[in-house]
Design brief:
12 strands; alpha/beta; Nucleotidyltransferase, domain 5
Length: 279
């Protein structure tokens, strides 16, 4: 089995992948902690022959995690953001300071579509752009839905936005404080994604496929005007492209990859942007 770890600052996700069949056998999530307990926090390592890690947690957490894993697992791969990988050149002045989860998303998206806008809807909402040909432009970071809610300090932080709500409902004026907060935050997030995508595509003269991942991807997806695809395993797919360990991965078949989304005509993107600037 292959154990893939996506370690965040607060939440860590894992999945077990069968080496022979390339099928996902199990998956889960735990709070990121200083000390891991195999068999409780993560699967029993007796069945694991290789580990791949993407981590944005503190370096001490990553170091201790790797030390624990290497006691029992022969192969441990730790992804790092680099100046170039798999045909993509990093747009950051200091590539090592780009969050590795964002870099994994960029690499996975590029392998799927040959240029894209990758959006990770987690604690923060990050947007990265990579052009056809592999030039990563850099990106944007804005507060995520939960972070925006916590910043208001109105006692509504524990009232989550229902991911099954229709977009029209979430974009309507709220009729109580909880609704007003949730709908305002939602409007802010989807408006930012729509506007940033349109601005960058207009400036670069190319419309790009739009890919979403992260815990809030499904709810953000409902409010976007731009054709897009949701890819929950996009960070894992980045690990697969960097460290292919199965026959399917070596053949370029990424787990859970969606069909590439349709791309709107650039003229339509520009028309929508021009209209929004008149408002």
């Amino acid at each position: 089995m292959i154990l893939d770890l996506d370690i965040g600052n607060t939440l860590s996700k894992w999945r077990l992948k069968d080496v022979a069949s390339s099928e996902i056998r199990s998956r889960g999530a735990v709070w990121t902690r200083e000390e891991w307990r195999p068999g409780a926090d993560i699967p029993d390592l007796d069945v694991v022959e290789a580990v791949r890690i993407s981590s944005v947690a503190r370096e001490s957490v990553l170091r201790d995690t790797v030390t624990l894993l290497r006691r029992q697992v022969g192969v441990v791969h730790v992804a790092r953001s680099t100046s170039e990988a798999l045909g993509v050149s990093c747009g950051y002045d200091e590539p090592g300071r780009l969050g590795v989860d964002r870099w994994m998303g960029v690499l996975a998206g590029y392998q799927l579509t040959g240029g894209c806008c990758s959006v990770d809807c987690g604690s923060a909402i990050t947007m990265d752009f990579v052009l056809p040909g592999g030039r990563h432009l850099g990106g944007y970071i804005i507060p995520g839905l939960r972070l925006m809610k916590e910043s208001l300090k109105l006692g509504t932080r524990n009232v989550a936005i229902d991911p099954d709500s229709e977009a029209d409902e979430l974009l309507a004026p709220g009729r109580n404080t909880v609704e007003a907060v949730n709908h305002g935050i939602y409007m802010s997030a989807v408006s930012a994604v729509n506007r940033i995508y349109s601005e960058v595509c207009d400036r670069e003269g190319v419309a790009l496929p739009l890919l979403l991942t992260g815990g809030d991807a499904r709810v953000v997806s409902r409010g976007l005007r731009i054709p897009h695809a949701v890819w929950p395993d996009m960070v894992y797919a980045g690990l697969e492209t960097c460290y292919p360990l199965t026959a399917a991965e070596r053949a370029g078949r990424l787990a859970g990859a969606p069909l590439p989304p349709s791309v709107p005509p650039l003229e339509k993107v520009r028309a929508g942007l021009a209209f929004s600037m008149l408002l």
